[in-house]
Amino acid sequence: MKSVKISAVLLKMAFSLCILLAAVGVYSQKALQPYDDWTIQVLNQLRIYEERLELTSQSHEFVTGRLDNEGTEWVNIELPAGYTYHILGVCDHDCFDLDLELHTTDNVMLSSDVETDDYPLVSVTPAERTIYRVKVIMANCSSEPCRYGLGIYRSE
Q: Are the beta carbons of 130 and 77 closer than 8 angstroms?
């Protein structure tokens, strides 16, 4: 009788464990949706250029998006005071020129990088916690849409 009770308890525990593992598996699949090839290119480009430019303190999650040739998009970024921040832009292999402009919320341009390249960099040192607007400009995209990415880095 005792072994039947233990077997029933073990069976219930095993069943509960299977349900829990199934739930975790479903959650993990949703949380880890695969990136498309172009977004992966952009994330790899961010890592390559942050190393080349010696940007070592990533302060925010990467921002990614897609734009057609000559398209623009605004991205709001909140930055605390006390540090200089560098905002790096990159784009996929179908993009040959990406530009960035850094604006206040009143649309005053503080900095821009409109060189003919695919890794613009703008910087700012906020005096107080501030929201900035970054204008992303897809200046030359050969196969629309092109993906872009932004990395935000703090220097001490």
A: no
